[in-house]
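thoughts on these tokens:
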Amino acid sequence: MNEPLAERIRPKSLDDYISQRHLVGKDGALTLHIKNGLIPSLILWGPPGTGKTTLANIIAKESGRPFYALSAINSGVKDVRDIIEKAKKSGGLFTQKNPILFIDEIHRFSKSQQDSLLGAVEKGWVTLIGATTENPSFEVIPALLSRCQIYILNSFDKKDLITLLNRALQKDILLSKKKIELQETEALLQLSGGDARKLLNIFELVVNTISEDSCIITNDLVLSKVQSNMVRYDKTGEQHYDIISAFIKSIRGSDPNGAVYWLARMIEGGEDVKFIARRMLILASEDIGNANPTALILANNTFQAVSVIGHPESRIILSQCAVYLANSAKSNSSYMAINKAQQMVKSTGDLSVPLHLRNAPTKLMKDLDYGKDYKYSHDYSENFVEQEFLPEEIKNSKFYDPGNNPRENQFKEVLKKRWKSKYDY
């Protein structure tokens, strides 16, 4: 049997579906849609091996709809139009059973290919389900994005991965015939990176390298078998996230040699240059930030440049940017600040905007003291006057803590001078 383990035990119903409880659990965002069969066009966004294709198949099956599937890697406008014509004959706007068109890796569709979907989605000839590992805001055209709901799938947690391994041992037609004991799972879980398909591929690889019908799975066994069978860079899954992780961590760790090496691995593996540039753009803000604001400008220019310049020249632009970012001063203070602020919002809810900060475009609002006692900064010396900008319940909360680098040390001195009676800088 040549069918991979991940395919052999792919869930066929919602009850068998593991993980993503925020979407398909009892109170999940998709649960009611699936139960009622009223499925909106949607995009499933998440890392590889999180169940996007499986979920699309289950949605179609449980809602009783015809199901058409395309892969953006090997499909064109003609394929899309052919399926739309079939869909028009089997469903339409005035039936709840209009077909589902599933497009895997929809981020790889060009603008013209995505444009070809608009009419069918808008008129209800098909319900579109797109799957992507990339941020839809970057990769899906706005007109199509506005017609779809976005649902985020998360990497599998430890509990779900172990459940998946046990299911494979119990239900797989081949593994269930063997006597396999899961004595240790740490290595399997770590190598999987939360990718269910990768976990099952590694597990099957380990089991298949053992001639006996019984074995005990240990961390040492897994590492010894996997390390001798590591595959070359696979831009569609296996090492995709491992190598981009090594690349980002090399830049964060200020090692241009490591950065250029992992960049070369991705380039030689045929990785999408926009994917690499986008990750550097994020890093320029997350890991460098205001320690060197020019880094964000250079990274953005790099993204724009490689978007119009293809292989092989784009490798030079990517290398220049990677080396610059690796050599730059580092700070994650802005990243940490927004994390802290978001956590505060989640824990305190929608606190009222203080009256003096509210907008007062009408007389009634002014009569209600909207904007009263607000101090216009430019009316004061050095364009600054101390006042409260946070809701009363969380006043004096500090989210931004400047990093220890020359530029942010300057920030710190200014903040100390301005806010010495309010914040501890």
